[in-house]
């Protein structure tokens, strides 16, 4: 008896994959920008973070919508449900983070702003890991 792996679901639609790449890169860039601001106190780094977070939300909105449509079409499977929860929480925390970063510079990027940025980046990376990894079912071949 040998084991073979067969794909159990199709890969991401190419447009969905492209859209998901933006929040991953932009939220990660916002973390780096926040850390740089905290080390330099140069106001422009705080602005960069706010812009990165805003554009991550712009591209993350269609990702959440696409994940919801995929979940409805797929019939409420476990990985699709987990992926939707991750991108939805990522987007909501990103929105809270955008509001936090719209405050005055030092209060926007302090500990709460940095923690929100780290959470958004981590959720985006985990969602990307789930979305880009091939899901396979191990079947016994005769």
TrEMBL record:
This is DUF2231 domain-containing protein. Residues 13-130 form the DUF2231 domain. InterPro entries: DUF2231_TM. It comes from Sphingomonas donggukensis. The chain crosses the membrane at residues 49-69, 81-99, 111-132. Keywords: Membrane, Transmembrane, Transmembrane helix.
